[in-house]
Amino acid sequence: MPEIFTHFFYIPIIITSVWWKKSLIVALFLGAVLIVSHTTFRGDVSAINDNLRMVMFIVVALVIVYLSEHIAKADEEIRKHRDHLEELVSERTAQVLEVNEQLKQKITERKKAEEAL
Fold this sequence. Notes:
Elements: H1 2-7, H2 10-19, H3 23-41, H4 48-116
Helix pairs in contact: 2-3, 2-4, 3-4
């Protein structure tokens, strides 16, 4: 049962990794809670599993922070490219509208020239 309980420690580590980016503090705190609870309540059992679990808390926190930052950078790059593409579309649309207006004027001039003949 204690092993299942400690698996719940990953939830706040992952949440703080994604939202707060200070997950190392939370991972260290929860690892310390795990070690202290082990020495307090189960002093007769080897603490190697709890020590390894604390290391895993830290590793998971660091990996999630890295991935979150990577995703945030990718989102920023996508936003920049989207803004650039919107700017290009606006420029091209203005050019097309200008050429369209010129063509309308030429059509009007030719119709007048045909009527004059």
